[in-house]
Specification:
Layout: E1 3-7, E2 10-13, E3 18-25, E4 33-39, E5 46-51, E6 58-60, E7 68-73, E8 78-83, E9 92-99, E10 111-112, E11 116-121
Parallel strand pairs: 2-11
Antiparallel strand pairs: 1-3, 3-8, 4-5, 4-9, 5-6, 7-8, 9-10, 9-11
Length: 122
Amino acid sequence: QVQLVESGGGLVQAGGSLRLSCAASGLTFRRYTMGWFRQAPGMEREFVGAVDWSGGNTTYTNGRQGRFIISRDAAKNTVYLQMNSLKPEDTAVYYCVADLPNYSGPSWGLYWGQGTQVTVSS
């Protein structure tokens, strides 16, 4: 059974940083592209970014690269989302996602975590 368990969410002031973690189990981690989506209240879910199976290639939504950094640790079967210079509009539930091909669009994502809440206060 595949499980993706996110952690690291919480309340942070604008300008602050958070690092989300996602521990994966039940899959061959090194084969999967790992990514993050987020969904704010009343908004559609949106892609944040992804890292390929090797960890060498990352993809981000336009405008987010630089503030957000995705990385993975194969030894720990864990993917990370480092978020810096956070803004109130970054407030959302953040979901960890896994799929075999690289990110290809809104339908991408075979396995999903339960999500972790990130709240950025102004």
